[in-house]
Design brief:
Elements (H helix, E strand, L loop, with lengths): L1 H11 L1 H9 L12 E2 L5 E7 L12 H20 L3 E5 L15 H12 L3 E5 L11 H11 L20 E6 L9 E6 L30 H16 L5 E5 L6 H4 L19 E2 L2 E2 L4 H8 L8 E6 L8 E2 L9 E3 L17 E8 H4 L6 E7 L4 E7 L9
Parallel strand pairs: 1-5, 2-3, 3-4, 6-7, 7-10, 10-12
Antiparallel strand pairs: 2-13, 5-6, 8-9, 11-12, 13-14, 14-15
Helix pairs in contact: 1-2, 3-4, 6-8
The structure holds 2-acetamido-2-deoxy-beta-D-glucopyranose (5 copies).
């Protein structure tokens, strides 16, 4: 109702109002350069997840596995030459590091991307919340030390364990006012106890949640989408990143999709507490599905967390929204049979693909051994929907 009144008002004084609402659109990039598609209409995003830096800092294999992770990233970056890198959670094995220098591992993690002058941002995982580190500390360190290249923000969500919720626009060209695509990033909270001595510490009650905050985030998504409609007349297609998969992923896991399926049946995924599914991840999921009135413009929702999963699937059960897994982009963390060659997931966005009635995106896995695999075009023709 309020929006209706504002729309009427905006037809009288269109420009000043649009400008004032632009400032409430959180993704407007004060002081940062605009992300734009190249002259061929392409914008490539590389998502890396589950690096688990700092896992063994006082044993020889620890620094060695972190160096291996950096080499893997360098190979994938040089092969793919992405325009943007997403670090999709579990950047650090927080329960194994010292609080005094934990954030320093972010410098090692970002180094290959920074050396290539590529812009980036992060989501955070269950291992990034521990007795030694938390999501807010990682976000503040990244913002303070990478003010030019990092686009990570904290717009909304409970601090300090669940505040990495934000979005970043990508424009077809520099002079455009309306973005061609929005990258959305969400914080699935959770906490891993324990410390280098091996003993478990208590999980703070404020961290004992395993889903995107249902109190603040759905409301934020709705508010930002309403403002986009008001200011831009459109909610642009969305590419979504969140560390822990939504529970809907379990339903899609048995579908015959290309990519690794080593972790099935999945361990307790998003929305579980005390080994019971709470349903509390659904307000976030429903807000994604309803982003633009349910017109199917969510290109993909991509998660890490399950290192042995690197597939994409969509079905009626996911309201037609493709759900993707990232695979394993680090030498830290557990390894499954088919995740020994580390990979990242690439999204090759293209303006022609985005202009389709139902926008589509091409995606594949890119491996540290300089090969790619599992390419699919995510969209209405991808897979036969299961009911
Ligand atoms: C690092 O990579 C080398 C070369 O692939 C391998 O031999 C070694 O086992 C790896 N080390 C660790 C700790 O992962
Ligand atoms: C943090 O301190 C520990 C203990 O001194 C050391 O082993 C480790 O290499 C340090 N980590 C970083 C990233 O500086
Ligand atoms: C989960 O288990 C803990 C410990 O038994 C209990 O204190 C807590 O209330 C439980 N939470 C829910 C939502 O059941
Ligand atoms: C690289 O690794 C992938 C994934 O394990 C594998 O399918 C492929 O055969 C490997 N390629 C080479 C050249 O080793
Ligand atoms: C992948 O390419 C890098 C950079 O050229 C090279 O150092 C590395 O040996 C290659 N790996 C494989 C498995 O071919």
């Amino acid at each position: 109702m309020i929006l209706g009144v504002l729309l009427l008002a905006s037809s009288v004084t269109a420009l000043p109002l649009a400008q004032s609402f632009s400032s409430s659109l959180k993704g407007f990039l004060g002081g940062k350069s605009k992300l734009t598609f190249d002259t061929k209409g392409s914008f490539k995003v590389l998502s890396l997840s589950d690096m688990h830096f700092g896992e063994g800092e006082e044993v020889t294999w620890g620094p060695e596995q972190d160096r291996n992770t950096s080499i893997a990233h360098a190979n994938i970056l040089d092969n793919e030459r992405p325009n943007y890198v997403v670090f999709n959670g579990d950047l650090i094995t927080g329960e194994n590091v010292f609080a005094s220098n934990a954030t320093k591992y972010l410098d090692q993690l970002f180094a290959p991307t920074v050396a290539r002058n590529i812009r980036f941002s992060s989501t955070h995982g269950n291992h990034d919340n521990s007795l030694a580190i938390n999501h807010l500390e990682e976000i503040e360190y990244e913002q303070a030390h990478y003010p030019t290249l990092s686009y990570t923000r904290s717009d909304v969500g409970p601090k300090p364990f669940g505040c990495g919720n934000y979005w970043v626009p990508v424009y077809a060209k520099e002079s455009d006012f309306v973005p061609a695509v929005i990258m959305w990033f969400f914080d699935s909270r959770s906490f891993v106890s324990g410390h280098p001595g091996g003993a478990d510490g208590p999980t703070p009650p404020a961290a004992n949640f395993h889903w995107v905050d249902e109190k603040t985030v759905p409301q934020y998504i709705k508010q930002q989408c309403n403002l986009m409609t008001l200011v831009w007349k459109v909610v642009p297609p969305a590419l979504v990143f969140v560390h822990i998969p939504v529970q809907k992923a379990d339903i899609l896991a048995p579908l015959p999709s290309v990519g690794n399926h080593d972790d099935e049946p999945d361990p307790a995924t998003q929305g579980f507490l005390n080994e019971t599914y709470t349903g509390l991840d659904l307000p976030f999921w429903n807000a994604l599905v309803e982003m633009d009135g349910g017109r199917g413009r969510v290109l993909a929702v991509t998660s890490g967390h399950d290192h042995g999963e690197s597939w994409c699937a969509r079905a009626t059960a996911s309201s037609g929204v493709p759900i993707c897994f990232n695979g394993h982009s680090g030498y830290g963390g557990y390894v499954t049979e088919h995740s020994q060659v580390r990979n990242g997931r690439v999204f090759a966005l293209n303006l022609g693909d985005l202009a389709k009635k139902v926008p589509v995106v091409r995606t594949w896995n890119s491996y540290e051994n300089n090969t790619t695999n599992d390419e699919v075009l995510l969209g209405p023709d991808y897979m036969v929907p299961l009911s």
